[in-house]
Records
---
Amino acid sequence: MSGPVLLDAQHIQKYAYDDEGRPIRGTDVLLLADASLELIAGEVHALVGENGAGKTTLIKVIAGALPYEGGSLHVAGSLRGETTISRVRSEGIAVIWQEFSLAPHLSVVENMFLGRELRRGRRLDKGEMRRQAAEAIATLGVSIDLDSTVERLSTSQQQLVEIARALNERSRILILDEPTASLSRFETERLFELLRRLRSEGLGVIFVTHRLDEVFTISDRVSILKDGRSTGTLVTRATTKDEIVERMVGRHLDAVYQRHRTTPGEVVLETRNVVPAGGGAPASITVHRGEIVGLAGLVGAGRTELARAIVGADPVESGAVLLDGMDVTGWAMRRRLDAGMAFVPENRKDQGVILPLPILRNLAITEWPRLGPGPLVVPRRERGMATALVEELSIVARTVDQPAFTLSGGNQQRVAIGKWLARDRVVYVLDEPTRGVDVSARYALYELMEAIAARGGAVLMISSDLPEIISMSDRIYVMRLGTISAEVARVDATEQSILTLMLPDTTAADVSAAVGA
Amino acid sequence: MRRLGVSSAVIAAAALVVAMVPAAAVAQDEAPVIGLSVKTITNDPFQAAWVEAATAKVEELGGTVQLLVAGGQTAVAQQSSQLEDLVTQQVDGIIVSPMDGSAVLPALQKAADAGIPVFLVDQPIAAGNEALYETLIATDNVKAGRDLATYLVTTMNDPELKVAIIEGAPGSVAGDDRLAGFNEGLASGNITPVASATGEWDNAKALAAMETILQANPDLQAVLSASDVMVDGILQALAGAGKTDVKVLAIDGSTVGIQGVLDGKIMADNTQDPMAMGSTAAEFAMGMAGGTVEPGSLEKYIDSGTVTVTLENAEEAMAKAF
Amino acid sequence: MTRLPTDRPLVRATAAAVAIVVAVLLVGQFVPYFATTTNLSKVLLEAAILSVAAFGMTLVLLTGGIDLSVGGVMSLVGVVEVSLVSSGVPWPAAVVVGLGIGLLLGTVNAVIVSRLKLPPFIATFGTLGIAAGLALYIANVIGHPVFPPDFVSLGNDAVLGIPITVMLAVAILIVLEVVTRVTTWGVHLRATGDNFAVARLSGVPVARVLGSAYVISGLLAATAGTMLAARLGTANPLQGEPYTLLAVAACVIGGVDLFGGRGHLWAAGAGAVFLFAIRNIMNLQGVQPFMQDLVIGLLIIAAVLVTVQGPALRDMASDALQRSRHRNAA
Amino acid sequence: MSTSSAPATGGSMTSPQPAATERRGRAAGTWDRISRNPTLGLLALLLVMWALAWILVPKFGSVDNIRTVLRQASDLGVAAIGILFVLLIGGIDLSVGALYGLSSVVLVTVMIQTGSLPLAIAAALGAGVLFGLLNGVLVQWVRIPAFITTLGGFYIAYALAQMISAGSMLSMPADDLFVGLQTGLLLGIPYLVILAAIVAAIAWVVLNHTTFGRSVVAVGYNRVTAGLSGVRVPRIVITCFAICSGMAALAAVMLTSRVQIGVPTLGGFNATFETITAAVVGGTSLFGGRGTVVGVIIGAIIIRTINNCIVLLNIPSQLYQAVMGLIIVVALVVDAARSRYLGERT
């Protein structure tokens, strides 16, 4: 693997920046202290590091979204100074950000050519754009309605549109920021296939991820960032998870989490043939006290819909939700929460925390009604409660007054969960609680769930991470195409069996085989 | 979705309106229909008064009235639009108090083309367009202002007189004319107002303006108000500042003004007898509709006269007050 | 709901046209004099003036902004033009100057909003005050002169039964529709209003696009102001003021999304026609002015209900149904 | 609990920390903190304005004049506090100006009918609150954008005022209490100003020290998260609109007490925009979440100070609007420059 060097970032320095991306006046805070990354044509280069390690910042610098203050950045051999995003795109660099850069009400075609529309003279060349778009989509081996507005596409479809755009722009460098975070195993596989092909066509791919196993599946080399500094670039074949993890966090962690088991109590949450708003097949599940129940399935299998129906975020079309034997189906969400439900949605930044609000408020929001005489909120009690939680969850923050957006992803997630811990809740519904969370934070969250179960709480955890769901759950429900395809006891659960149950083309035979009945 | 949306919106709303409109006011019956067009009858007793008088007279003479109100200071375009609507309905006569003496010209031209006689009340139209109307029944607002100011100057007879002016809304013809009149009258006594601010035909605004003026001029002796509709606010301000000795003079001749004179709160109120304007205009309009009055036979300008009402003549003025 | 890129303008236009014809005929049954050519052409003439202002407003709304200065610009332009004419300047020259002023104020808005990144609602309200105030001041200096007849006739006369102003408005509409459809600028306009950050990241010159909308809005407002001046034959310093909200109302009734990214110029035009048709009907029926306000108010809300909120309403209905069903069940 | 059950985690978390913390931290000196506090910035702006006026504007600097300015700012301030609630949840209310007229005529009509001032005031406030509830329901449940709902609402309220008053001014039956409201002084401070201050104080407590107030801000920043955290979003939104209109009604009562007559056209669109301007000049964001009671009050005082100076300086009335507009733009630019300078995220 010795293609030409497409990109060479050496000792990049980047200070804390303002709206314009300029260093905040008088700041001495380095987001990137000494970050280096070299990308060769025809390689997939993994970039790993804990949240807040500076991965995204580095990518933004490479993408030209941010200027850099120190070090050097050579693209195709020439040093890059001041630049603009559009210029960078013409350099053949395409970035697929975590939150997609598509305009919801524009069509697929318009989005694919946004900012670099094809023209014939002064006029848009709609025919040609359509043709190229269709072609690019086709090469991905999928079918997407080119005229559909993007808001109507699924997450993975939107991602594919972005990749198609990159291909169409003949990009030489493709940067993906945690592309698999919101993809199902199935879709991830398809994505990797694609990346392998692009690699063979001589593209350079930078692949940011939290999932180490993915590093080994897809990457040729892996660069590790820690607190804004490069802690090495390794040839993937020649290294191990442990080595990488060590360079990320500077200490050793067991690859798989071992949880101490507890014996479940009586049923506390039950759904009877619930059909969530928007349809799907009736789903019936039960969760016991002291039990962690996993809900596996591909994205779009209906897991989130079921979860939202359980907590009352959306109405159900039919069926009943029972909490402690009470039928709460007709209850508004607030009433269910008061009755002891807790919900941590999958989209942390948009639904889990309120970014501009202080940690204090984010943690206390569920407790305000109980923090003072009548309608009042006694600041002292609110602060005390929040401070205690920050302690308990070891949330990393200077003060409880700093806005949530100043926290790393993992810490934000702890806040999102923490607001439900001031009081013991009966049922915790967690949707992808560890997505985009770094290793150590992930473990802390596991311990949280255990602690909840240990004191008799019930946890329903949605996760696309099979090792995680298997190691954490007492029982696993697998969803496929909007139905509960199977219930698997932990003892029978293997990545293979669960995966089989998840995949759309599984037959009844496979199921019985997988469940081992 | 939106496509259907627009259409259905159009139809739905159209139906809604049709449903809510009163049984066609302008049925094609024999009784002559006189169209009335006025800026506003809201919060403006003067306009309300002549409209009322005209309506009464028309109905007394067996006609029906089609009243269209533009609805406020800024509705200049709306008034000419409404005049055209009256022409469209082929009314037998139009009595109008133009908000803008020039802006109505195209509309009045259409009326003339349609052979509909037009009678102007209170406000003139731009000079040189006498062909467009039968007669103008009005008082000269400049004169009204001048008379009032002159009365003040002569009675007070103090070369150092401290006078403030509360103007009408900027941009309104009547307001500008009365202001001009005030200044002319004061100039006749070599007096320049110590302050001049707009009350925008609005008591609250007049109040605020007056309060502030009193701050700058604690020794103020008199206030000239462009209209009775701002007098309440002005008096409140004076009372609030304990300056009840300040002389207040206003134009209109509304009950507010005249009663103020009787109560001694107002020194003088220049009345223009809008009711006379309204009924006279109505009489001519009905006459011409009935053929008893020859088109073109009327004086182009009929001055309905202004009276400066003081304690002496307040009693009889009260009878005519509106 | 709508798919902007691929909508079939003809289908939509015809649909709206049909709807309007139906409405006219329907109303004509109940309202005497409404369905007469003179009356309809008068309605169109008034709508034409508003629609030109509304086109500018639409472009701004597409970017997710709003331009409250429209009315002030209309007043000021008229006053400036009439003052120039009264001081001996030939009217075409005066008009050019007027349009220049519109362009200037539009640019001011553009700079404040796109460069200084201030909220358009309050920023354009500021320029509204400035324009309206200057109009009053100038008018107070020059009095109330009138325009020469040939200019006035342009604002009122019709050729082959179609008012000249209407032709002008339609011409402007066609140009804008074509330009927004065939140029990158059209896409960029919607992209900017749809998702500013994304548009920026995609290399759309957002600042310039944003600014362009306000500049054009200013120019169109000036055009509308000139048309209004020509119709009235003079320039009252207040005559433009109602048009800010009327323009917003026209857009809203035309289903333009106040949050940006979605909307159609022709629909705003239709909204304008609709608005003045209703007014005209109410005038013909002698509806009291405050009743007229009431109806306009209800209409604005109703229009949004049908055009924008239709689907949302259906969702709600079903939601409510679900909940009630469960309550009964429980 | 997690720490107790797993000290390992506690330890593990700390290692990357110092760096992390320091990275996100920012040296915040006292001056920095002061200059960074928008409310203090506003206060400074106001004082500078007053100082300048004191020097440049004849007769501005008298206690009595300041008192006048404050009295004139009192009703605007109350209305602005009301609209603050709506702006905080990311809404807007254009109907405020029309509610002035509506409440004014309702007040006087009921007064004439019943002769009872408390009843009349209750009716006026009730009318406002009712109207606000209507706005809120349309916005929250029927999902009509607030801008539209309240634009339509303006016309409707305006029309209702005309209908009730038959389009004419209604003279207020003499009532010592009501007259006293506008003339009365306590320790040299006008009752109206005291009333406004009390309202402000209550609003401040509600916004800063109650579940409701905290929820309002939460909803303003992110209603989805707030909802999923158990905040009753619909209730909050509707209440905010009700408060806004209720406050507008109270402002109308205050203003009516000053003119002592019921005016259907009291307020109007200018009042609406004046109110919004006061809020925005007071540092309120039109995008929700950001805004303070104190700031809004200062905004109102600033506006009235400008009005006051315009009259004191005998500036031609035609130029009022122009000056106002200019000041708004300047104020915005200054604020923008300030936050740019401080590198605040907007």
---
Amino acid sequence: MTTAPRTGTPADASRVLTAGIDVGSSAAKAVVLASENGEVTVLSHAVVRIRKRDIAAVIDHAFTSAVEEAGAGELHYVASTGEGEDIPYATGHFYGMTTHARGALFLEPRARSVLDVGALHARAVAMDGRGRVLSYKMTSQCASGSGQFLANIARYLGVSQEEIGPLSLQSASPEPVSSICAVLAETDVINMVSRGIKTPDILRGIHDSMAGRFVRLLRSLDVEGVTVLSGGLAGDVGLQAAIRDALSKEHLGKTAPVELVTHPLSVYAGALGAALWGAFRYRKLDLGGVAWTAKTSP
Amino acid sequence: MRAASKDRSMELQKQMIADHYKRLEEAPATGEPVVYTFVPGNLTELVRSFGALPVLPEINALQSGMRGKSGEYIAAAERAGHSEDVCTYVKCDIGMLASGNIGPTGTRLPKPDLLLLSYTGCYTFMKWFELLREQYQCPIVFLQVPYQGEGMIAPEHRAFVVKQIEDDLIPALERISSRKYDEERLKDALRLSASSEDDLVAVLESAKKRPSPIDAYFGAVYYVGPIFSAFRGTPEGREYYRSLREEVEERIRLGLGPVTPEGPLDDQKYRLVIEGPPNWTSFRQFWKMFSDERAVVVASTYTKVGGVYDRGFRHDAGDPLGTLADYCCGCYTNLNLPSRIDLLLDYIREYEADGFLINSVKSCNSFSAGQLLMLREVEKRSGIPGAFIESDLVDPRYFSAANIKNRLESYLQMLEARRAATP
Amino acid sequence: MKCAVGVDLGSTTTKAVILDEERRVLGRGITNSRSNYDLAVDVARTEAFVAARFELLRRKVTGVAGEAVLDRLLRAFRLEQMLHQLGRLHVLMEEECGRAVPAEVRKETAAALAAIFRRIEAEETDAFAQPEAPRRSDFFRDLAGSAFTRAAEAYDAAAFDRLQGLFDKCIIRAENESLALGFRDHIGAALERIGRPADIAPAVDGAVNEEIDDAATVGTGYGRARLPFPKEQIRSEILCHGLGAHALFPETRTVLDIGGQDTKAIQVDARGLVTSFQMNDRCAAGCGRYLGYIADEMNLGLHELGPLAELSGRPTRINSTCTVFAGAELRDRLSLGEKREDILAGLHRAIMLRAMSLLARSGGVSNEFTFTGGVARNPAAVRALRELVHDSYGERTLNISADSIYTGALGAALFASRTAE
Amino acid sequence: MRLQEDDVSKRSEIVDWALGVAEDLDFGIAREWIAAEPGRRACGYLPVYAPREVILGSGFLPVGIHGGGEHLEIIRGDAFYQSYICHLPRSVIELAQTGRLDFLSAVLFPSTCDVIRNLSGMWKVMYPGVYVRYLDLPQVIAEETGGRFWREQLASVLDDLCALAGRHAAPDDLREAIGLCNESRRTVRELYAARRERPWSIPTEELYVLLRAAETVPVALFLEKARAYLAAAEVEPGPKKDKSRVIVTGAFCEQPPLGLIKTIERAGCYIVDDDFLLGNRFLTVDVPCDGDPLDQLARAMLTGSVKSSVLFESSPEGKRRLMKARVEAARADGIIFAAASFCDPALLDRPMLRAGAEADGIPCIAFKFSENSGQFQQFREQAGTFADSIKLWGGE
């Protein structure tokens, strides 16, 4: 696929179709949006896990299935984010925190911060009411408390990804995880099993230690009000609960405690943000024409 | 009987500290000027000769560590934008300030009338006071103390420090205290200092006896407290060291060892020399690891950060400002690495140590940078293996008990095996 | 006969070594430490005693019967053990299937399980029939795991995930049951399987009844604090590795041990006494577990990594030695089109670079040098180490024993044999 | 027209040359210079500031040792340092232990921080044959105290080096050296000014390697290359892009990998001011060539040294006002605080500088690097987000 020359203007110029493609370390996500006089509708979304496959192919797969589901013959702006910098048919690229902030705001207009937790990273971003990034904080180059780490432990415990959250919720007395290093923590966990600690308590212990880190990230930004959980782990109800507990314990927020919200589309926050900024730029720069048409797709 | 005799000096110290912090709390009311300064190169005699009260931020920080407060203070400082990489004394102090500036005895600490930086053997001190100046908006006097890069105090360096004391410090102290510099008062204080210093050295060197009546690291950090902080050159300071010396001499007479948190340690299996500051957040747990293995520390470099008195230096009333300059230039972390290596070797020899251990703290590059070379050199030149463990001053996140215990056990088992094999 | 036992309870594997009165190695046993240390110790000991009885057998029948017969008997014995474990795993998975799998697919899943286990048992029996035993993992978890995955791939994605899920759940249970895997439990069946050759059958019956009395035991290793031994029966793994390496190679003056989550550099004197040591702290970067993650990432057995890396022409330069990030870096670089073997070679070099700084800290490599621990079995790791040591210390003798993973346990056993006297 | 093509090729030639020199871990040009005549010697110095005039004035070639960069594999160096100490001294020791610094007959260790200070003692222990000198910079600015102290330091270094070279300290040699260094500093200022005016035509990755090369070659050679580069950049400006103007500060000692500089400028930023290799412009004024040269050098240090983390800030407002002044001078949109991990000077200063900048409404971000950072994704994300926000909200 290649970028089409911007020829003519589409039938209905007031209606802008944009796509957002968010390439993460474990999956590629794509959405197609229509925005018309202030109204934004999500026409389609698709996620394809990378699973040791060629990333370019995965991206195309996610993009084309989103486009087909949306039935979009042409797009005015294709915006990439995350690792998607080099997508040949992207009109422009926005960086991860810019898009997650915007996407989170779209999913939850009250949100003033977003907690983006992926397989290998975690970052907290504070934004204003227009999705402008005010400040951020990310975890360091060590995988402690990353999604990957949680996945490894779950595998060891014989728990599938989907079961992690529900099991963690059953925990009566969470078992704290001490070690800084993920591998040493893994040994902690092995010892826990040998001490007969229940799986839910172990999982919740890990969730708690992750939540602790994330809340420290938020705290370092002095966030207020509502925060959205986005990224690959957004759907983990155990993690959600752990973060909520940590938030209340840490008394985050000067006036009222910080409220954590999630959304069925949380996983698409980055892609949504990219598509929204795409539309914003399309209008701001008054580009006109289309960036991509089905004819040019493979 | 042991408990009782032990208690006297401890009681005295407790009382001195309580009184001092009480006086500090009342300073804003009584109008006594307050000078913040650091342990190494502290000019207590001069400061007090102007009726000013010293506050030593490191002491507050380590006290916060021992009282389990440092964790939250450090977190507060890091939230305020301080890096996790830098000295935790600084962050603990700044965090304490942000949390109401309540000192170790639960009393509020007064604002400084003057920040007195009279030591540059630690780079971080300079930044620490720049940071405090942002908080307090008060004057700083900066005395540059040249490092002993060539292993000695050059005469021109001594003169440089004296000139700074005359040109910058004395006028500043006169301003905040509205008193004139009184050399006689200073000389009286210096005489008191010298006599306390004699007693302290006698106590530290008692560790040459077998069994050693003291632990020259875990125990001695309490012994050096008064002389390293606000009480050098004071009558109560001298009183403390007199009674401490008597207690130690009594223990020698009775052939007793020190009393550790786990009880008396008379039957001493290993005699160790230690380089580097202790960890304060797990101080007792750390000490217990040694006493459990019946290891006693017979000499340490940390107890020299406020003055290397056991190598002969004494405050000299005969040359008041010159002696202060010598003192500033002579503190342990102002010695270059070759000198520090020689000192360790001397201690191992003089105190007939079985081994030496380096506790390398993340916070303090002045101490830590180069310690791995020191380890190797001392091993090479003494033929005695050393141990190397890593922790931090007051950051609870950096004390990994399991790792440290494993290393210490392995090390002592190694010394034992060598001893068994070499008749 | 009297013997001394050393147990090395490591973070990933547990090893046991048995010495006879002459301090000759009678038997070795290994298992993955899994999640139950006491059990791990039992299994390792049992394995060691199995090996010990085979050794006694070997001593008896040499001259009477050939090595070949004994090897065949040993392989038959292993097969019996394997089948026993597979049987148990199958039962557990059927139970779990009945409990956890949705009714509508339960029957087909159970059927799939039956088919898969039939296939694995067949594979195992065929493998036994082969004249040459291929090099493979020591651990039931790995053997069963790879065989199961291979077989399960025949089914569609949904079924595959379901089956794999069942396996992940049950393998840990199977591992944590104490199964009867001793010499007496299976030697009979093994003997039958090879048709009771007359030249060894009587000796075998003798070996079954032979009394072995473990006079003294010493424990060491990462989990030594958890061993049910009194303090004087516990030794630091540093001392045990020093003594063990000295026993294997008396001229050794430097020992490097890379275990699952710690790396040790040890200097020993002419008597095997430790004179200095260094070990990693707080972070397991560059330890054996690192390779474990890579193997998982590539769906390879741990033992397959080295040989693959050996094919590399120009190793990639790897930056992060954070174990958990290794997988991600691998993926990144693969997506950049770099060759698998080059990346692997780079990863091996990265591990060894970490080890080199510990070595230097402990005093360098001044003389004969021994590399022990699980990673010493990995040819690519050994090559990287050989190159680095040569570059920074010049020509040095590098010892690696096939049994180097037992070095700590051997040292412990030697300490035990001393206390026995 | 032809001329222009020549200049284009000339420019890339110069950049290739500079890159080659900057990444030459064996200091080939310095070695050649020494070999060219018997009796020639070189004197190394560590960051941040060392008096090159004094080194030149005693006949030595000054060689800046700024670490081993991203290409040096650390095998022995890590054995000397705990995990919580910055990367620079590891690679410096690696260079020394692999014989790459054996051409230096003297090394100066300025009072940049305690790590470099202690490294001077380590050098004394490990390389007894080399002249090792720890150099306390003047922290007090009064002529009578700091001034005299610094002059004594300079004098004793000069005497020691001259003694080493078997010659007498001659004021005229020193004056000549001062003139040469003035010239070099003027050229560096010109290069920085040109980049500030036309960042699209002078990419920082080019400017940086040119100045990195300057640290290890004879001054005259640097001047020749730098002038040619300026001329070429005039003729061939390169495409102007819509990027935000940023100051990168905090990397004055351990140097960022070139990849990091590229990453920042490719993620939508133009670097219009920085403190890389700060020593080469540590003195902001020309040092007068008349009078007693040592007096002049000492005075210039007291009155004309750049504001930095290695010298005590005597003015109470100094830290708070510094960044605003730099932003205005460079017409920057924002500041990237890029400090080396575990760098005490940069990291302890950062809260003060950042608070000051943010109080003045200047957008800031901060991250840490090390000279051998190999993965730039985190930096790209942050610099990119920074550029995004200026792109999306610029002019508000």
